[in-house]
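Need the bound structure for glutamic acid, inputs here:
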Amino acid sequence: MSKSKDTSVASHALPSYLDAEHLGPWGNYLQQVDRVTPYLGNLARWVETLKRPKRILVVDVPIELDNGTIAHFEGYRVQHNLSRGPGKGGVRFHQDVTLSEVMALSAWMSVKNAAVNVPYGGAKGGIRVDPRKLSMPELERLTRRYTSEIGMMIGPSKDIPAPDVNTNGQIMAWMMDTYSMNTGATSTGVVTGKPVDLGGSLGRVEATGRGVFTVGMEAAKLSGMNVQGAKVAVQGFGNVGGTAGKLFAEAGALIVAVQDHTGTIHNAKGIDVIALLAHVAKKGGVGGFAGAEKMEDSAFWGVTCDILIPAALESQITKDNAGKIKAKLVIEGANGPTTPEADDILTDKGVLVLPDVIANAGGVTVSYFEWVQDFSSFFWTEDEINARLVRIMQEAFAGVWAVAQEHKVTLRTATFIVACKRILHAREMRGLYP
Ligand code: GLU
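Answer from helper R.:
Posting the output first, comments after.
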């Protein structure tokens, strides 16, 4: 057999920059793709596309610290797939960021964007840094240098970053300014999640949490759960967990436990969410909140609740703690919070898992609205934005629910079926060129 006909090597080899032991979240993503492949019909011929990021950039980000020393940080931007449109996805600043993690996050963006049918591919970026250890001027220098280093890859019609873990509107403003200064034209559409006065969109900050709440309410309705009086546990009380918690409390649910990097708190009678949000804004975390009791971090997963919202980092629900979970509904506000083994344990227990790739898609949906508003320089009201967001989330969720029923698969596999078909159909129609 001639060498060119032997596709088995190309089909099975991992990229040389990752070995099997360091797959991390990318390994979880690959398993999710394997689970969907039998449902892709003729498009399965293209599935390998999903297992290889299109483009990876690793950059050195040197900055001068306030004390005069020079520090180097590792930065990444990964474009996983651009078949359906420009790359889209956030930028994460965290001390544990790795290439494998950014690859997985970029791939989940491809799936998420296709699941809610916004016209984007998937991308993600990150810097391996603990931003809490930097002063504001150091953080600004880091952001600007990183933006310059990835400048050749991003652009309003190429790849559009946004906030993610530990990044916010101020960081997006610096990214927008740096890109604009380097290209010589004010370019608001190069990032989303900007402050409203700089071409940002009303409703963007709350959008991910609002989307989590919207699909949670739909799932509760479909599975006969009464949200009024339901007990909710939330991991991560930032942008996503904080907003989702507030909306569930407004709908009559009791927020009984909250965990973040500063500790775990519990109050079976329900935590005053508005007071907790004020505490977090002041202290940087839930630790030390007077309106609840402190709880062991490891006890969080076994807490008595109906709804569990992991809204922090990936790989939090694992085979070691999935068995303890008492919730009937898990809504993934974070990206990749549940490992494939844990997913199986939850499914076997009859827990309904609303997967990240649909549940947290509200953020990128309003990012899309922001990008459209920037292009047209015409801005919408918050009511209009929220109404459009809710409509998109409800319609996408109903579609995924129907596919899950049809194939008798989990909502994660159903979302992957819908999304991967869209991505691979676009891939096939565009064809290989050159
Ligand atoms: N970082 C968010 C996510 O993981 C939003 C990305 C975006 O708006 O582009 O979905």
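Comments: The mean pLDDT is 96. The chain has three domains: 1-52, 54-185, 205-359.
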